[in-house]
Amino acid sequence: MSLAALRRPALLLPLLVIPIAAALLYRYWQGPLLPGYRLELHPLVQEVVATGRVISTSRSQIGSEITGVALERRVQEGDRVQAGDVLVTLRSDDLSARVREAEAALTSLRRSTRPQAEAALRQAEAQLQQATRERQRRRELLAQSLIARESAEQAEQAEAVARAAAERARAQAAALASGSSDEAQLRERLTAAQAQLAKTVLRADRAGTVLTRSVEPGDLVQPGRVLLEIALDGDTEILLPVDEKNLSLLRVGQTAQCVADSWPERPFRAELRFIAPAIDPERGTVDLRLRVNPVPEYLRQDMTVSVNIRTGRRDSALVVPNDALLGVDGGRATVLVLRGARLVRQAVHLGLRGVALTEIVEGLSAGEQVLADAGSATVAQGSRVRLSLQALPAAASDPGTRGETPVRFD
Description:
The protein is of the alpha+beta class. It has three domains: 43-54 and 234-397, Elongation Factor Tu (Ef-tu), domain 3; 58-90 and 200-232, CATH 2.40.50.100; 94-197. It has helices at residues 3-30, 93-143, 149-176, 181-198, and strands spanning 33-38, 40-56, 59-63, 68-73, 80-81, 86-91, 201-203, 208-213, 220-221, 226-232, 236-243, 255-260, 263-275, 285-292, 304-321, 326-329, 332-339, 342-353, 357-362, 369-371, 386-389. The strands form four sheets. It has a six-stranded antiparallel β-barrel. A four-stranded antiparallel beta sheet has the order 3-10-8-5, with no helix packed on it. 30% of the residues lie in helices and 37% in strands. The longest helix is centred in the N-terminal third of the chain and has 51 residues, at 93-143.
């Protein structure tokens, strides 16, 4: 090989290195390649997301007002009951004895005490008549001077004693007569004893579904102990505690999409009907009540439900992914926007906020490019950069949701 042939590659090497070096220098001058987004108009739905539980509008706790032994329990969890249905029967020997005693006293009044008082009254009236006739006879004899005055006075005194006895017998008979106060007292005594005995039969006041039971035959039942808990028929609601930061977004009448954890493939709708007037100071939450109508047949009391409450919607909004936002403070934030190949810090006003996207109402326009993951970026403001445009987050195709930490009930 000739010397000229050996020198030819050496001459070509600088010709290859110079363009490569120039390209590298140009890339360096352009700045690093970083991920970014192009602002676009996009539908946006804002929702508050939380976890709650199913409740009924009212529950009834069934207990006993008396002490007794449970004889029979006629219902168990899940049973439907109607108003008046017998739930539990108790045995109370003491109350039964009181009823028998009151019945015996009333029977004794009717069959014995009252007839005796009436007989005593007839006897006292007969004795009074006899004493009156004797007084009149002796007065006539005294007028004829046939007896001493003392004898006539004795007859008058005997008449007075007989009259007093008759008045007592009359009063006693009146007190024991039908419809008298004594009979009324005995009737009230019997009614009270029967009312107490009736408390040994526990009945349902309203229709509903038995949720829990804590009594079995043979148990000693005492006042204050809850034996059964019944969910009364009525509206079914969802009790939903949400972070108080979302309070400004919530309005009565807003609709919600609900999913029971045990039936994720069967969502149902609910409506916000109540916002608690107070905040739980320990958890920093406010309780909401949502009415479910119609109620899915699979829904159960205390079932855990995930709820998305729709608080706002835009059919076309200028949106930016949330990771591009810096220093969010209420409705204000900043972004790093690419202008003239350099990053510039731009203040923006925010509208609807979702878990993936946020609406920009002021400060940017469609088509502008912003830095992604701005919070972890290491480049300074004013740096030259190149942006590799990323697609909007996948969640953007679904309703956006505001970041609400679910609150579960134990």
